[in-house]
Amino acid sequence: MFKSIVIVVPCFNESEILDTVLDELKGHFSNILVIDDGSTDTTLSIIKSHDVNWISHPVNLGQGSSIDTAFKYLSS
Hints:
Layout: E1 7-11, H1 18-26, E2 32-37, H2 43-48, E3 53-57, H3 63-75
Parallel strand pairs: 1-2, 2-3
């Protein structure tokens, strides 16, 4: 059995919906990790306004790299 669950949210230029998604997730989960994959809109500022863990890629690397980043972060 898992002692804790971490919700991983990879995102790229998701400013229009991200606020709502994070609010809904926080209503059900306490461990949320958001990977900003080099967004050029206000995605990162929205992430920072929420009480979540986050990592930001300097450039867009793709969803696979975002998930890989999450696994590396969580295994360290």
